[in-house]
Amino acid sequence: MNTPGGPAEIKRSAAVQKIFADTSGTPEQKTQRMFSVLIPERWRQAHPDPSTYVPPVTETISPEVRAKQNAAVANWPGIDQQLLSIRTPTLIMAGTEDEVVPPGNALTLARQIRASWLVRFRGGGHGMMYQFPTQMAEVVNTFLATAN
């Protein structure tokens, strides 16, 4: 879960949604489109060779599966009304430049989940695990070692 869903959710832009819905083109064109929203432009410019930070793509998503995923995201009623009842320590990580799940959603989650940690990665996109793998691992390890 990375958004409360429902009326509290901050939706992605129509432009980003269009990219997710577009299944046309060669595998390279599809990859370029996805990278354009997963990794912020400034970071891509500073790190122009994705092979140095993203593992090779070995599986693809069929247009049918992608359409079902997009429909599920669009139609999810959310759990924003249930968040206050969560008592389990919860780690919330967000990139400040995430275009897929706008970072304001992480703030909503953190405000409503009492035992939450919110960690924001400055300049991070939705693919921040490729941008900041070591830092994310350190956060997860610290959270697991101390949050209880």
Describe this structure in words.
The protein has seven helices and two strands; from the N terminus they run H-H-H-H-E-H-E-H-H. It has helices spanning 14-21, 27-38, 41-46, 63-75, 104-112, 128-131, 133-146; strands spanning 90-95, 116-121. The chain is globular. The two termini are 20 Å apart. The model has no long low-confidence stretch (mean pLDDT 92).
List the helices and strands and how they pair.
Elements: H1 14-21, H2 27-38, H3 41-46, H4 63-75, E1 90-95, H5 104-112, E2 116-121, H6 128-131, H7 133-146
Parallel strand pairs: 1-2
Brief summary of the model shown:
With 148 residues, the chain is mainly alpha-helical. It has 7 helices and 2 strands; from the N terminus they run ααααβαβαα.
Query: Structural class, please?
Result: mainly alpha
**SS summary, helix count:** 7
For the largest beta-sheet, the strand count, sense and barrel status come to: 2 strands, parallel
Mean pLDDT: 92
Q: What is the class in the CATH system? A: Alpha Beta
Per CATH, the architecture is: 3-Layer(aba) Sandwich
Rg from Cα: 16 Å
Question: Which key phrases capture this entry?
Answer:
single chain, 148 residues, mainly alpha, Rossmann fold, two-stranded parallel sheet, 7 helices
